[in-house]
TrEMBL record:
SUPFAM superfamilies xrefs: beta-beta-alpha zinc fingers (SSF57667)
Protein name: C2H2-type domain-containing protein
InterPro entries from the UniProt entry: Znf_C2H2_sf (IPR036236), Znf_C2H2_type (IPR013087)
Residues annotated as domain C2H2-type: 7-35
Length: 284
């Protein structure tokens, strides 16, 4: 009887009749760069598999299992399943973005400190620890709102009872402009937005302008104004219309994407326009 050779895959034990067949199998199904494609087991004419010859088979089970694990491409954390790695990498990517944003802010603050140190001798009488032209700038979150009268607040609440874009843009964004971007009340000019597209802005912290993530800052301005209006509604419920008392309830149900695209972007634009029209002049 003519002896025939059979080739057994040393990973999955599948039998093949030729070396080229097992080569194609290994290339297609076990193509890890760490595995030598020439390593296989030869079974010489023995159906029971008693005469097995292992040709240079130095791959242990632990090594094979290690090759089949999935490593995060960002932090090198190892997962057994590809899907588990995919879910992890989504969060890992968000963490990486946050780290990049914080690194940008850190670098911007360092650059601002260098510029501030270089200019101390020139503008010491103009800008010093939160004081601009002898006006003390309030820290962000500690604004003086005493000049915002009832009639202004009622106009804002009335506009919130409508649902068109024009009314929305002239409600909460208008209050943001009156508080932070008001040339008549420089004590509250504690926010700087010097670019529409930049990911960072500045806010007054402990008497100094510090870089922060702009999206978070604008979102916080928006939230603080909602709280301000809600407190007013709670105190003056009997002095305003029923629609006004319920306007915030309906406003909070709006799609977050609408809030971001229409309201927050309007605040962003108002801040930028104010900076270009006023802050540049003050700096000059």
């Amino acid at each position: 009887m003519v002896k025939s050779e059979r080739y057994t895959c040393n990973i999955c034990n599948k039998l093949y009749s030729s070396a080229s067949s097992i080569w194609n199998h290994r290339t297609k199904y076990h193509s890890s760069p760490n595995i030598d494609q020439g390593k296989h087991i030869v079974n010489i004419n023995d159906v029971l598999g008693k005469q097995l010859v292992n040709i240079d088979n130095d791959f242990s089970l632990s090594q094979i299992e290690k090759d089949e694990q999935y490593k995060c491409r960002k932090c090198n954390k190892i997962y057994k399943y590809k899907q588990s790695r995919w879910f992890h990498e989504k969060k890992c990517n968000e963490i990486e973005i946050k780290n990049i944003n914080h690194e940008i802010i850190k670098n911007n603050n360092n650059n601002s400190q260098i510029i501030e140190n270089q200019n101390n001798g020139i503008v010491n009488n103009t800008i010093n620890n939160g004081t601009i032209n002898n006006i003390t700038i309030n820290n962000y979150g500690h604004e003086d709102l005493s000049y915002i009268k009832d009639d202004i607040i009622k106009i804002v609440l009335e506009r919130l009872t409508h649902h068109d874009d024009a009314s929305m843009k002239n409600a909460i964004p208008r209050l943001a402009r009156m508080i932070h971007f008001n040339p008549k009340h420089k004590e509250n000019n504690n926010v700087e937005i010097n670019s529409v597209r930049s990911k960072t802005a500045k806010q007054m912290v402990d008497g100094k302008m510090r870089h922060v993530i702009k999206e978070q800052l604008i979102t916080d301005i928006h939230s603080k104004i909602i709280d301000f209006l809600q407190n007013y509604i709670n105190k003056h419920r009997l002095d305003i219309t029923r629609k006004m008392t319920e306007c915030l309830k309906h406003y909070k149900l709006k799609n977050p994407e609408y809030i971001k695209k229409i309201i927050l972007e309007e605040i962003n634009l108002l801040g930028y326009v104010f900076y270009k029209n006023n802050m540049d002049i003050d700096i000059e």
